[in-house]
Design brief:
CATH topology of the largest domain: TIM Barrel
Strand order of the largest sheet: 9-10-8-7-6-5-4-1-11
Number of domains: 2
Number of helices: 15
Distance between the termini: 10 Å
Strand content: 15-25%
Shape: globular
Structural class: alpha/beta
Number of strands: 17
Radius of gyration: 21 Å
Helix content: 25-40%
Largest sheet: 9 strands, mixed
Length: 396
C-alpha cells in the first residue's frame, strides 16, 4: 500500500507534564505540581524512553527538537542540559537543528534563560496569552503583564534571537478594541514569531464544564480580520492558521508536523508518527499519560501505551488535515513523498474541492482559493475516508 522512496524529515518532541496550576481552558496533558518535581528521575526516564525508540529511526537525522508541556521551564537549566546532551549522544542532530523550549513567564528569571541558552536551546516560546490583567486572572495564568514583558526582555538579554510569544483572542467578554490592544501590546515586544489563536472551549476543561461568556461569531471575525491587517502591517506573514513570522523565523518543528513529516514522541502522554520505509507502513505510537505511570514504567521499559498503523484513507485525511493549514501551495509529488501513496489516492478529492471553488488545482499544483482558506473546516472534511461523491469512485 505505502511505497516510500525515502522517509520524511524527522523531529523529536519531548513532553513535560507538570505546571504550577492547571489553566481552566487547557486540555493538554498537564498536572499541577504539589510536591517537589522528580527532575532527575524524569530526565532519566526520558532518555530511557528515547533509547527504546532508536531501533525505529536508525540512521536518521533529527532536524528539530521541541520541549513542550505543561511547563518545561519548571526544570532547571542543568536538567535541560543533561537531557539535550543525552539526546545528542543517542541521535544525530543537524548542526543547525532548531531546539525550542516552552516557558511560562511566571516560572523564569534571567539566570534560567541564560542557562537554557548555554544548554543549547536556540528558540524560546513564551506563553503570554494576554497582557490584560483582568483577562490573565480569568484565564488562571500565574504571571502578570509585567512579568510577561520582563520574560521577553530577559530572553533577548540571554541571546535568544528566535522568540515566539503565544497570544489568544476571543477571550471572555472581550471586545474587538480590547483584542487589538492586546495584540498591539505583544507586537511591541518585537517577537520573531507570534502564535495568535482563538480561545476555544475544549472537552474535559473547567471552561467547558462552566462556559464563560465568549464573544459571538461576528465579533470574533471582526477581531480576526482587524488583527490580520495589523500583523501584516507590522511585518508578520501568516504562514499557518494561527502562526505568524518575520522573514526566516517560521517554526521549523511545527512546519514538519504540518507537512506530514515524522516525529518521535517521548515523555508522559507524548505521541509520535513514524514512516517505516522497510515495512512500507505509517505507525502512530503514544506513551503512558499520567506522570506517575510514566515514571513507574522506567523500571521495566513499558512506556508505550499503544500504537496503530494508518490505512491509506487515514493517511490521505491526516495529510490534508495538516497540510491544508499552511498557506503555501503543495504538489502531488509532495503528497507522494510525505505519505508513500500514489497521487491517484488524493486526486479525485482535489478535483472535487477545485470544482467547489475551494482549491486551485492545475499542473499538479494545489493551493487554496480565498474561499477555501476562509472555510477551511469544510475543505478538510472533503478528505475524510470514504467514497468520493461523484460517480462513487474510490480515491485509492
Amino acid at each position: 500500500m505505502f511505497r516510500f522512496a525515502a522517509t520524511p524529515p524527522l523531529a523529536l518532541y519531548i513532553h513535560f507534564p507538570w505546571c504550577v496550576r492547571k489553566c481552566p481552558y487547557c486540555d493538554f496533558n498537564s498536572h499541577a505540581t504539589r510536591d517537589e518535581l522528580p527532575e532527575a528521575a524524569y530526565i532519566d526516564a526520558l532518555l530511557t524512553d528515547l533509547e527504546q525508540e532508536l531501533p525505529f529511526v536508525w540512521g536518521r537525522t533529527v532536524h528539530s527538537v521541541f520541549m513542550g508541556g505543561g511547563t518545561p521551564s519548571l526544570f532547571s537549566p542543568d536538567a535541560i542540559e543533561r537531557l539535550l546532551a543525552g539526546v545528542r549522544a543517542r541521535l544525530p542532530l543537524k548542526p543547525d537543528a532548531e531546539i525550542t523550549l516552552e516557558a511560562n513567564p511566571g516560572t523564569v528569571e534571567q539566570a534560567r534563560f541564560d542557562g537554557y541558552r548555554e544548554a543549547g536551546v536556540n528558540r524560546l516560546s513564551i506563553g503570554v496569552q494576554s497582557l490584560d490583567p483582568a483577562q490573565l486572572r480569568t484565564l488562571g495564568r500565574i504571571h502578570s503583564a509585567g512579568e510577561a514583558r520582563h520574560a521577553a526582555a530577559a530572553a533577548r538579554r540571554a541571546g535568544f534571537d528566535n522568540l515566539n510569544l503565544d497570544l489568544m483572542f476571543g477571550l471572555p467578554e472581550q471586545a474587538p478594541g480590547e483584542a487589538l490592544d492586546d495584540l498591539d501590546a505583544v507586537i511591541a515586544l518585537q517577537p520573531d514569531h507570534l502564535s495568535w489563536y482563538q480561545l476555544t472551549l475544549e472537552p474535559n476543561t473547567l471552561f467547558h464544564a462552566r462556559p464563560p461568556a465568549l464573544p459571538d461569531d461576528d465579533t470574533r471575525w471582526t477581531m480576526q480580520e482587524q488583527g490580520l491587517a495589523r500583523l501584516r502591517a507590522q511585518g508578520y506573514a501568516q504562514y499557518e492558521v494561527s502562526a505568524f513570522a518575520r522573514e526566516g523565523r517560521r517554526c521549523r518543528h511545527n512546519l514538519n508536523y504540518w507537512r506530514f513529516g515524522d516525529y518521535l514522541g517521548i515523555g508522559a502522554g507524548a505521541h509520535g508518527k513514524l514512516s517505516d520505509a522497510a515495512g512500507q507502513r505509517i505507525v502512530r505510537r503514544w506513551k503512558k499519560r499520567h506522570p506517575k505511570d510514566y515514571l513507574a514504567a522506567a523500571s521495566d521499559g513499558t512506556f508505550l501505551d499503544g500504537q496503530r498503523e494508518l490505512d491509506a484513507g487515514e493517511a490521505v485525511f491526516e495529510f490534508a488535515l495538516n497540510r491544508l493549514r499552511l498557506r503555501e501551495p503543495f504538489s502531488l509529488a509532495d503528497f507522494e513523498a510525505a505519505t508513500g501513496l500514489p497521487a491517484r489516492a488524493i486526486r479525485a478529492r482535489l478535483e472535487q474541492a477545485a470544482a467547489a471553488g475551494l482549491l486551485d488545482f492545475h499542473a499538479e499544483q494545489v493551493k487554496h482559493t480565498d474561499t477555501g482558506w476562509r472555510f477551511l473546516d469544510d475543505l478538510v472534511e472533503r478528505f475524510l475516508p470514504g467514497e468520493v461523491n461523484d460517480a462513487g469512485k474510490q480515491p485509492y
